[in-house]
């Protein structure tokens, strides 16, 4: 098979066979590792994962993320979308260097819980709302537990003692 690739031009090779574009480290700001990632992903396909808030059906997820994809398409981003669960979607970018701009757009959306790019999870706008709800729920649960502890000061020790008789097996 490798002999077949000898006659094919660089641009026509499958992505995994192409040589990566050269990275000019003189243009990279060492204090911003995201810039290095952008440059290293230029021209490479990259997947961006997003989670939709609430408990949407797959059809709702399809509709919501379709709006996101349309907005990104109108902003000239070459992006494909694949719904992979009732609240999970993959956006595929042909140019991975644009992934962080897409991430910035997605995390600003009302129904976006989180976005994952290159293994890094970025909380979305909906995550902040969910965190506030979870915090309130945790406070309510803590109050209920402390109330139960106050009610049951006398522990029930029945059935907690070891048997005095030794049984042979």
Automatic annotation (TrEMBL):
Keywords linked to the UniProt accession: Chaperone, Endoplasmic reticulum, Signal, Wnt signaling pathway
Any one Pfam family match given in the protein's UniProt record, by short name: Mesd
Biased composition (Acidic residues): 1-12
Keyword rRNA-binding belongs to the record: no
The organism's place on the tree of life at top rank: Eukaryota
Coiled-coil portions: none
Region (Disordered): 1-28, 125-169
A single BP term in Gene Ontology: protein folding
InterPro entries: MESD
GO cellular component: endoplasmic reticulum
Compositional bias per record (Polar residues), positions renumbered to this chain: 160-169
Entry annotated with the keyword Nucleotide-binding: no
Subcellular location: Endoplasmic reticulum
TM regions (residue ranges): none
Family: Belongs to the MESD family.
The protein, known as: LRP chaperone MESD
Gene of this entry: MESD
